Amino acid sequence: MRPSDRVTLEDVARAAGVSRATASRVVRGDTGVTAKKTKAVQAAVASLGYIPNSAARALVSRRTGTVAVVIPEPDQMIFSDPFLTQTVQEISRDLDEADIQLVMVFGDQSGHGRRAAKYLRNGSVDGAIVISHHRFSGQVEAIMSVQIPVVFIGRPVAQASPNSWVDLDNVSAGRLAAERLLECGARRPAIITGSLDMVAAHDRLRGFREVLGRVGIDPVLLEGAFTAESGRAAGEALAPRIESGEIDGVFASSDLMALAALEAWRDRGLRVPDDVRLVSCDNGPEAAAANPPLTSVDNPTDILGRAATDMLRAILDETWDGQPVLVPARLLVRQSC
What we know:
alpha/beta, Rossmann fold, 3 domains
């Protein structure tokens, strides 16, 4: 065979001593081929330098080899929130290992997800992973209407909520934060929540209140937005009450908000944990590097990203067991509380 000739599947089958159908099954990764024949085909592929015709394969399988990651957040938050960027990086790595292309879709909030849904319907992608969705009326429903597999990172709430989601056990995260503050002696705690139209923020608040309610404590609540700006604003609002002794412990529902609040308190001469104990959630690298290092509930982007890509691939391959994935919460204790 001349080097300029394109190697075909028939060439591979001939070299391996198998039928074309068997060679095709091995190249596609199908099961049901003996180990001996699989090895022979793989050796022929390597020696001949065979490259599968992805366009032809797509026509047969109706797969594009592309997955969308949808983030219904403002652009500035997508690129400044460590949780979002780390989760996308993990998904990208996992899809790359499977030779699947990732495309980003920035979902519109004003249109309740309709623009993103319109794109997902056009046949450009095989499936979608949605991160950081809100409980806007119709947002989840719009995305679920696209008739392609969709996996949510974050438990969705809709009229007919799907089971295709992975999430941290956020209720337990709130419980762990409350328990730690109580263990450290806090008796007048506050919570800086994320946006309460997000399930994660609502669940962390629920777990926090549940533990404190058992000992007759009703925490002070300030609603943030999972942003540094909202964390600093909440920190500044709490500062006079910390100075007066009215507040002695704070659970900030994300590292980003906790770090911003910490900076606001430092500017006022308030010290953590001497003047106020602080617990956060996410356990990103910034939490461990803070001064003082933050006690934080782990929100493992590697586990969530891998679980979401595995679930989506299982749905596409029709091997999914139909069950969501709930990741147990774990508290990393450091100097802030």
